[in-house]
Design a protein that fits this description.
The protein has 160 residues and is an alpha/beta fold. The protein is built from 5 helices and 8 strands, in the order αβββαβααββαββ. Helix 2 links the parallel strand 3 and strand 4.
Amino acid sequence: MGEINLTEEITNHLIGRFEGTSTRWATEVAIFDPTNQNAYPGYVDILTIDLNGHKIGHLPKITCYEVKISYSDFRSKNGHNFHGDENYYVIPKDLYDQVMKNGGLWLENEHVGIYVYQNGKLYKKKESKILYYHSLMNIDRRFWIMDNMLQRWCAGREKT
């Protein structure tokens, strides 16, 4: 299976988990540094907002998912845009095994959680440390991220 097809398959499977819930989602959401207008934006592969405000009082919970399907993509300096209350890598099982074999134990100590995709299913290998960024995210930053996400979301489906 080609990398693009696998990326789409994993993305669609993850998105399917949000159907019928209070969670809204969008793909390729720009995350800018609001203090630096000249900074190059990062793009979160999938960003969700849980409107029920689970686990953080009455504020909507923001979760970032980065889909990685190759070792070079995983080790690249690009595309690790984790600005949510919860943050996850979503990777195929063979990539997870390769990362762990090549000294990926550092990943176990990171705040980022891990979903592994295998045989058409997602398995949570590691829970994200909840609220990692909460103490760093003021209300303006939270609503700025939510606004960027909602610009990509329309009536439960992503804008094309």
